[in-house]
Amino acid sequence: MEIEHISYKRGMIKKPSQRKRLRARHLGKENIPIEITALIEENEVYVN
């Protein structure tokens, strides 16, 4: 598996429907640390 990019959101919400309000952070392939890629692969994390 080759990771092309990672997007994640963080913050506090009271309802799951509010998650669209959270700001997203995007990391491109060139900015993802090798350690993060290894952890994702080791734990078989799948994110759509």
Could you characterize the architecture of this molecule?
It is built from one helix and two strands; from the N terminus they run ββα. The chain has 48 residues and is α+β, with helices and mostly antiparallel strands. It has one domain. It has a two-stranded antiparallel ribbon with strand order 1-2.
Count of individual beta strands: 2
What is the SS-derived class? alpha+beta
Distance between the termini: 14 Å
Series of secondary-structure elements, N-terminal to C-terminal: EEH
Number of domains: 1
Task: Kindly report the spatial arrangement of strands forming the biggest sheet.
Answer: 1-2
Oligomer: single chain
How many distinct helices?
1
Q: How would you sum up the major sheet?
A: 2 strands, antiparallel
From the spread of the alpha carbons, the general shape counts as: elongated
Strand content: 15-25%
| Unreliable residue runs | none
- What percent of the residues sit in helical stretches (DSSP H or I)? 10-25%
What's the rounded overall pLDDT mean? 84
Based on CA atoms alone, the radius of gyration comes out at 13 Å
